[in-house]
Amino acid sequence: MSDLKYKRVLLKLSGEALMGPEGYGIDLEVVRRIAQEMKELRDTGVELAIVIGGGNIFRGTGDEAGAIDRASADYMGMLATIMNAMALQDSLEKLGVHTRVLSAIEIQKVVEPYIRRRATRHLEKGRIVILAAGTGNPFFSTDTAAALRAMEIRADVILKATKVDGVFDSDPLKNKEAKMFEHLSFLDVLNKNLKVMDSTSISLCMDNHLPIIVFNLFKRGNIKRVILGEKVGTTVG
Q1: Average pLDDT over residues 25-48
Q2: Does a structural domain hold residue 1?
Q3: How many CA atoms lie less than 13 Å away from 41 in the CB half-sphere?
Q4: Is 50 contained in some domain?
């Protein structure tokens, strides 16, 4: 498509997005639905990289990690992201989409190591690139990994997939009167302590003028409308 607003995008996908009604682990039907959306997006001609979280399996800063050394817990969370990435890759390839998983932690018999030029080349060849294991370092979230990788591959925008329609002044799942913002500056997000992405990733995006669009992944066709430039969700920038 020639009318794409964004040619190369980085999608930040939480591990929780892969959960089904059980509230834990990987729901393969949910993964298949997400993979179908990713295929339709790739079919538009957009170059797509995905940074995936691992909170559906293990969250380094969660309650279950409280008795474990923080660095060890973070590495366990990174391994969870690799499991999620492999599940998504399998679903995409069953749809005929060429996909590569690149990991910041080297597990050569399972996934490719992350190398910036290799990631860029895969994108240029039309492959979906799934970036796993965060930054490869403890104490950094997958939000920060998303901001870092987006800048490394020169993405036009970060798409932050959520379960709600955008960024609200309070939790819309608890408060029916919550107000959604259509546009926010990076400083608005930091000053109001809005839970878009963590402060490190917001600061990185602000310093490098990289916009973020927060949208509801589970409304069919939303992601395609975003890259066509339609008004969807909340734009931060």
Answers
A1: 94
A2: no
A3: 32
A4: yes
Q: How many CB atoms lie within 10 A of CB 37?
A: 18
Residue 193 resides in a domain: yes
End-to-end Cα distance, the chain: 25
Average pLDDT over residues 131-152: 96
Return d(Cα 172, Cα 216) in angstroms, integer. 12
Number of domains in the chain: 1
How far is 126 from 183, CA to CA, in rounded Å?
A: 31
Residue type, 60: G
Longest distance between any two alpha carbons in the chain, whole Å: 52
pLDDT digits (tens, 9 = 90+) for 22-33: 788 999 999 999
Does residue 3 lie within any of the structural domains? no
Q: What is the pLDDT of residue 144?
A: 96
Residue 165 domain boundaries: 8-236
Q: What is the pLDDT of residues 198-223, one digit of tens each?
A: 999 999 999 999 999 999 988 888 98
Q: List, in order, residues 6 or more apart from 77 with CB less than 8 Å away.
A: 54, 55, 58, 59, 60, 65, 134
Tokens 């950094």 sit on residue: 140
The contacts of residue 79 (CB under 8 Å, 6+ apart) are 54, 58, 105, 133
For residue 141 the two structure tokens come to: 């979230």
Structure tokens given for 149: 């990788």
CATH number for the domain that contains residue 92? 3.40.1160.10
Tokens 């931060």, located at residue? 236
> In this structure, what token pair is assigned to residue 198?
């963590």
For residue 158, what is the DSSP state? E
Say yes or no to pLDDT of 77 above 60. Answer: yes
Token pair listed for 128? 């979906």
